[in-house]
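Batch 3, record 17
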Amino acid sequence: MENEVIYGKNSVMEALISGKREINKILISKNIHTDVKINKIKELAQEKGIVFQFVGKDKFQPYAEFNHQGIIAQISPIEYMELDDFIEKPGEKYRSLVILDGVEDVHNLGAIIRTCVCAGVDGIVIPSRRNVQVNSVVEKTSAGAINHIPIIKVNSLVNAVQKLKDNDWWVIATDASAKDNYYDVKYDDMNFAIIMGAEHAGVSKSLLKASDFVVKIPMQNSFNSLNVSNALSAIIFETLRQRLKSNK
Amino acid sequence: MENEVIYGKNSVMEALISGKREINKILISKNIHTDVKINKIKELAQEKGIVFQFVGKDKFQPYAEFNHQGIIAQISPIEYMELDDFIEKPGEKYRSLVILDGVEDVHNLGAIIRTCVCAGVDGIVIPSRRNVQVNSVVEKTSAGAINHIPIIKVNSLVNAVQKLKDNDWWVIATDASAKDNYYDVKYDDMNFAIIMGAEHAGVSKSLLKASDFVVKIPMQNSFNSLNVSNALSAIIFETLRQRLKSNK
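Prediction for the assembled complex:
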């Protein structure tokens, strides 16, 4: 699926004001005259930290049939969920989350989304910065899984972790130097969130500190570079194994 | 790393006769005259089922500094191991294998190799046909893991499975419609091989039939399209968990 696009000054401005759909980028033709509306759009975009690009006419070629007035906004193909809404949602069962701290590769994100859906994870939390966003490539790589799980976007992962803990969730971070193995934690009688780090940097120190547990995958080789989606798969299916065994 | 290349009639012929290094493809210039040696090379290549391509001069541009005589063979960057040699190799511990039945995506193969190395799998078996081969892309995607695990290439997976069973190995195939879950098998007191199927087709019927166990990953969603490397990761780290827990 393509990124969706909003055309024309009024539509773009409304999208900016309502904030309902995530705007990835605003493209504006170099050839149009700046007027009050355009200035207002620029101002709003700046306030919200949305990228604003001046581009040549050719960029608008694909949208020639629409009355785009020389301005379009590329919006995210998915709607993000608010963490508060997720937490408050009543559940009969214990729930689980996966928190991604700086995952940069779109294919990894797609594979992670598929894995989470298959393993019955209830949501995925990503930060609004320093993490790959859910774009059309991710959507494609996820093979449609993206439509089966809420994606929760937060400004601060540390605040999100604190909020989860305040709401009776347990937070487990992964780190290569942890003492405990991931399967030493009991996952079957609590709401839990697993934090996976960036491919190279791992989970940030502030998040490790904020977590209830820090666990590792026991590596059997000095070559210990496990792909983040494969690491997650090992852990998340262990949590599922425990839950299915105990029927909770 | 690039695919390695062998230049010139004599070297290509020797490589074909010795069979020590896997030849992926032979390229021959459209502009050279066919002689006895070229005919012999063609004959040997056909016997061994090696692709033989007539190409324009420009394909030889990168090798201009070598005396290529209008013929080059692209050889595999790795040396494959024979299954017999693998089986006979004495081991103090129980060993494990992963068998790939028709995995087509190079990135998946790279991720699978990394996962296997991290989880301490002792070897990977691939069929010589209908499976992605270990080329330079796989080598790159595996992030170097390829140098830490033997790759065993066999002409027939069914024969390989039979041979393993004859040598006191247990063979476990994965299939979405299996009754047992992968974690219901005890992996800690046997040599075992896990068969993973192609992304869409799964493990072939003849292999399912030849296996000792058929297991599934319990899917929690009607969307049940787990990436093959993530499926393997769930299973292989469960086998490791069991072994580390029981210390065998």
